[in-house]
Design brief:
4 strands, alpha+beta, Putative metal-binding protein, 5 helices
Length: 124
Amino acid sequence: MSPTPRPAVAGIRGPAAYIPIMLLPPSPIVARPRGTPPVLICRKCLSRVDDGKALKQALKSELKQRSQSRGVKRPRVVMTGCFGICPKRAVVTASAATLGRGEYVLVKDAGQAEEAAGVLMGEG
């Protein structure tokens, strides 16, 4: 099956006449997540802090509990590259709610996961 020819663009001759899509300036495509926006965690900070694995697990479980109580889907926890803040003994986290306000959440240990989850989900 051969592709259907496209109509020529008025005033343009040659091969460019049959490629009208390339003549238009590119436009950005906006994609919105179906569920809740993800929570971002700096991988570099998590590896440098003591017991980073426990901190990540505590944050994930707290996010799960809060999302179940609100009746929404749990936000996905995504490991990212460096945010460029690099605190001494804390992990940089962010979400759509905090980034919309221009804020990052610094979490020192697993004990702060409850408070951090509230801020990351836009509750506080």
